[in-house]
Amino acid sequence: MEIFSYLEKYDYEQLVFCQDQQSGLKAIIAIHDTTLGPALGGTRMWTYASEEAAIEDALRLARGMTYKNAAAGLNLGGGKTVIIGDPRKDKNEEMFRAFGRYIQGLNGRYITAEDVGTTVADMDLIHEETDYVTGISPAFGSSGNPSPVTAYGVYRGMKAAAKEAFGSDSLEGKVVAVQGVGNVAYNLCRHLNEEGATLIVTDINKEAVQKAVDEFGARAVDPDEIYSIECDIYAPCALGAVINDETIPHIKAKVIAGAANNQLKDPKHGDIIHELGIIYAPDYVINAGGVINVADELYGYNSDRALKKVEQIYNNIAKVIEIAKRDGIPTYLAADRMAEERIERMRNSRSQFLQNGHHILSRRG
Ligand SMILES: NC(=O)c1ccc[n+]([C@@H]2O[C@H](COP(=O)([O-])OP(=O)(O)OC[C@H]3O[C@@H](n4cnc5c(N)ncnc54)[C@H](O)[C@@H]3O)[C@@H](O)[C@H]2O)c1
Ligand SMILES: CC(C)C[C@H](N)C(=O)O
Question: What domains, with CATH codes, occur in the chain?
Answer without folding.
Answer: 3-66+76-137 (3.40.50.10860), 147-338 (3.40.50.720)
